[in-house]
């Protein structure tokens, strides 16, 4: 049943993004930013962790999880290091994912020779 809920919740997040494209005519950048902010707000109200517990990868793979990670890392570090921890916590938690995206994007560009 966990696979069903992961697929359903992940698909629901994607449907919300598609509706933002089609109905509200938002650009990809606006849609991306909005979904990140929604994930951050849900974590701020302690609603994203229960969603992760319920849906697993369906909640951790979509872009809303990035907003969750930003707030989660900032809050955890703020408790230990104060206001400086807010900034460093965001980078600490998300740096590996961002670094991987940059590295894999560079490798893909080298291998496949994009048209520019």
Automatic annotation (TrEMBL):
Write the record's keywords in alphabetical order, separated by commas: Membrane, Transmembrane, Transmembrane helix
InterPro entries reported for this sequence: Spore_V_AE, SpoVA
Spell out where the chain crosses the membrane.
6-24, 83-112
Source superkingdom: Bacteria
Q: Show the NCBIfam families listed in the entry.
A: spore_V_AE (TIGR02839)
Q: What is this protein called?
A: Stage V sporulation protein AE
Which species?
Answer: Metabacillus fastidiosus
Q: What is the lineage of its organism?
A: Bacteria, Bacillati, Bacillota, Bacilli, Bacillales
């Amino acid at each position: 049943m966990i696979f069903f809920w992961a697929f359903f919740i992940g698909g629901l997040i994607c449907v919300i993004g598609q509706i933002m494209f089609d109905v509200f005519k938002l650009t990809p950048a606006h849609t991306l930013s909005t979904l990140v902010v929604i994930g951050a707000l849900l974590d701020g109200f302690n609603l994203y962790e229960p969603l992760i517990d319920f849906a697993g990868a369906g909640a951790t793979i979509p872009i809303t999880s990035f907003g969750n990670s930003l707030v989660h890392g900032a809050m955890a570090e703020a408790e230990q290091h104060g206001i400086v921890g807010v900034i460093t916590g965001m980078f600490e938690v998300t740096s590996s994912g961002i670094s991987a995206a940059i590295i894999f994007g560079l490798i893909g560009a080298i291998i496949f020779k994009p048209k520019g």
